[in-house]
Amino acid sequence: MADQSIQEARTPGVPTTRSSSDASGISRRALLGTAGATGLALGAAGGAVGYAAAPASATPLTSVGSGRAMFHGKHQPGITEGLQARGHLVAFDLAPGAGRREAAALLRRWSATAERLMAGEAAGHDDTGVAQDAGPSSLTVTFGFGYGFFGRTGLEKQRPAALDPLPDFSSDRLDKARSDGDLWVQIGADDALVAFHALRALQKDAGSAARVRWQMNGFNRTPGATARPMTARNLMGQLDGTRNPKPADADFDQRIFVPAAGEPAWMANGSYAVVRRIRMLLDDWEQLSLTAQEQVIGRRKADGAPLSGGDETTEMDLDKADAKGDYVVPLNAHARITRPDRNGGAAMLRRPFSYHDGIGADGTPDAGLLFICWQADPLRGFVPVQRKLDRGDALSAYIRHEASGLFAVPGGAAKGEYVGQRLLEG
């Protein structure tokens, strides 16, 4: 979880956001001129320089609000973009009697709504007005299909072999009611109201075709909150994501996306998402000394550097020993076990959210990680790494896997298409 789980935080740019009209002729962006705002100046490194009160006249969106992701493209949004400050994960089951036709109509509605909201527009109908003062705020909406979807729609022959259920792991304590699902939706944005607005709009769009199976809420550090772009921290305080694959890597597409000529054909340029709700046993973790925490992870807490020396990006020396002859990076350290070169080259793009769902009567926080990882084939990505972690990861004593899901996420929709059209109308 810790060594690769969180992608390096990115500082959003200031792209021009298209202003288009909703059904009533008023766009979400057009309302900005009447809603007092605050101007945020960002330094070149992405740190907040200062805040200044602004008049209620037409005020430009800050860089956070104006960031925009594209709905149409080779891949769906929400996979390669940087971490987002707010996220919602929701799984739906098709309603009794709903089949392929109803599923196609639902994906058509969802795609149309996602495209509008990601462009900074109001929802197509019955817009709640929750996000009317905001720009797109880098909103992304991603859709996937679970194992059961194919049986319910009569498309069993199109179910990918890679979507076979994940094996059982000895450390699992899974709640079936919060696992799996026919349809999966990932929502991410850099503004909490924009993210909630999308969640509510898509829930309403589901209508009688599908019902919510489970829903989870997450967060990350807000872009611009640090003086410079840097790897994010998780709720254990660890820098989390140092060795995450990067789009610039020569083999990135090969590891993360299904090839254009891959099988089944409708999954071309798609990916597989493993979703795990991992509770962190923070009371136990925080009782450890700093040295003990670093031994569990295999990296320094302050800067993410390997215990073998150097800085965060220095290659870990797994053979280095101390004066007593003990490995500097312990054999059961999380960072050692998760290294791709120790797992047959297995790699995943991890893009999670932290979560906090309250404090129990005994004072124990229900908090941890909504782990999301992307790979071309989970049998070569997530499964071998998790099996190895299951056999002796020092971090296992301080975390608990409480929910799980695996979803086939097709490639991006071309202009005029909806997500999943090649499956549902092929």
From TrEMBL:
As cofactor, the record names: heme b
- UniProt biased composition (Polar residues): 1-24
Q: Which SUPFAM superfamilies match?
A: Dimeric alpha+beta barrel (SSF54909)
Q: What remark does the entry make about the cofactor?
A: Binds 1 heme b (iron(II)-protoporphyrin IX) group non-covalently per subunit.
Record-annotated Dyp-type peroxidase N-terminal domain positions: 76-220
Q: Which chemical reaction does it catalyze?
A: heme b + 2 H(+) = protoporphyrin IX + Fe(2+)
Keyword set, alphabetical order: Heme, Iron, Lyase, Metal-binding, Oxidoreductase, Peroxidase, Signal
Region entry Disordered, spans: 1-25
Its EC number(s) = 1.11.1.-
Catalytic class of the enzyme? oxidoreductase
Subcellular location(s): the record lists: Cell envelope
InterPro entries found in the cross-reference section:
Dimeric_a/b-barrel (IPR011008), Dyp_perox_C (IPR048328), Dyp_perox_N (IPR048327), Dyp_peroxidase (IPR006314), EfeB/EfeN (IPR006313), TAT_signal (IPR006311)
Is the Methyltransferase keyword given for this protein?
A: no
Q: Which residues form the Dyp-type peroxidase C-terminal domain?
A: 231-413
Q: Which PROSITE patterns does the record match to this protein?
A: DYP_PEROXIDASE (PS51404), TAT (PS51318)
Of which family is this protein a member?
A: Belongs to the DyP-type peroxidase family.
Q: What does this protein do?
A: Involved in the recovery of exogenous heme iron. Extracts iron from heme while preserving the protoporphyrin ring intact.
Q: Output this protein's name.
A: Deferrochelatase
Q: Which organism is it from?
A: Streptomyces rameus
Per the UniProt record, the lineage of the source organism begins with: Bacteria, Bacillati, Actinomycetota, Actinomycetes, Kitasatosporales
Gene designation per UniProt: efeB_2
